[in-house]
Structures are given as C-alpha cells and as structure tokens.
User: Which sequence fits this backbone?
C-alpha cells in the first residue's frame, strides 16, 4: 500500500484551484490519511486559458468559470464603475462584469441588467420636447421673432392699430423693432 496520495489544493477564501499536494498515510495506524487543509482527492476538470476551476465544498465538485480577474466591474445598485477585479472575491452580489446601459436596472432574480421600460418610454416621450427646446435656444429665440412678424402682419392688415395694443405689448413691440433695426445683417 502506498503511503502518499495525490490531492488537489484550492484557496481557502476563493476556492480557486492552486495546485497539487500530497496526503500522507498515518505511520502509526496505517489506516487514516492526513490531508492538507483545503484539499480534495477529486481532480479538477481541464480548463482553457482565461478560465479557472472553483471547488464547491457543499457539492464536492469542481466548476469551470471565466476568470474575472483584470476585468471591469460595476455596482449593481448605483450602476457606477467600481474598478478592476483583482481577486475573485471582489465579485460578490453587489457587483457584475456586465456594463449597464442608461436605462438598465439590476434584476436580482436573474442576476443581470434589464431595461427599465418606464424610464425608457418616459425619456423617449420627452425627447421631441427637449429637441424642440434645444432648437429654440439655438435659433436665437425665434419664437419672439415669429410673434413680432405676426404682429407686423396684423398691424399692416389693419386688423388692429398699434395704439389699440395694450401698453406693455406696444412697448415690447417697439423695443424689439428698434433692436432688430439696429442689428447688422
């Protein structure tokens, strides 16, 4: 009977496979094996570059996952960038590797981002109004200019005289006409 047995070691905290070790048969009883801490006799599966093997004590089995180390992580509550994953323990329920979009919310059940349809539809509905407001600001306040032009037409057609306009409107109209006349073309 052999007095040593090959075992597979894993990190105590992260459970990542870290190499091979040896279990030794008790020299006195010759019936009890002494295993190193955080080891198993179950060999890890083959893994590719960019993957790591993780041991589950509860299931007594290995799983292969994509290695998250060196990748960006995001906070699932704030959607903010939370730095680079240095250790697998950096990825707990508060973080994900998936980058969120503007209208995403975290789905705790499926552990992934989903689109907040209410926020998306609200923003979509506001967009035409915001576009119009932006265009109005960019167009050097064309609405008052349109009102002036309309006032000119109403007065020129004789529908109302300038004197019939309320005092405040007449003053605004005169001032704007004066400013417009002074602007170089």
Assistant:
């Amino acid at each position: 009977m052999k007095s040593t047995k090959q075992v597979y070691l894993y990190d105590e905290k992260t459970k990542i496979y870290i190499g091979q070790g040896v279990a030794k048969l008790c020299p006195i009883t010759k019936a009890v094996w002494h295993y190193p801490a955080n080891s198993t006799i179950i060999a890890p599966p083959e893994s590719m570059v960019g993957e790591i093997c993780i041991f589950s004590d509860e299931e007594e089995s290995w799983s292969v996952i994509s290695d998250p180390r060196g990748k960006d992580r995001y906070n699932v509550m704030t959607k903010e960038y939370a730095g680079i994953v240095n250790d697998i323990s950096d990825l707990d329920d508060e973080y994900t590797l998936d980058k969120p979009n503007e209208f995403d919310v975290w789905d705790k059940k499926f552990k992934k981002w989903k689109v907040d349809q209410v926020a998306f539809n609200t923003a979509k509905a506001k967009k035409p109004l915001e576009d119009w407001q932006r265009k109005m600001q960019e167009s050097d306040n064309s609405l008052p200019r349109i009102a002036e032009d309309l006032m000119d037409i109403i007065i020129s057609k004789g529908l109302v005289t300038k004197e019939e306009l309320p005092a405040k409107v007449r003053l605004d109209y005169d001032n704007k006409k004066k400013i417009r006349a002074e602007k170089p073309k």
In short: The chain has a mean pLDDT of 85.
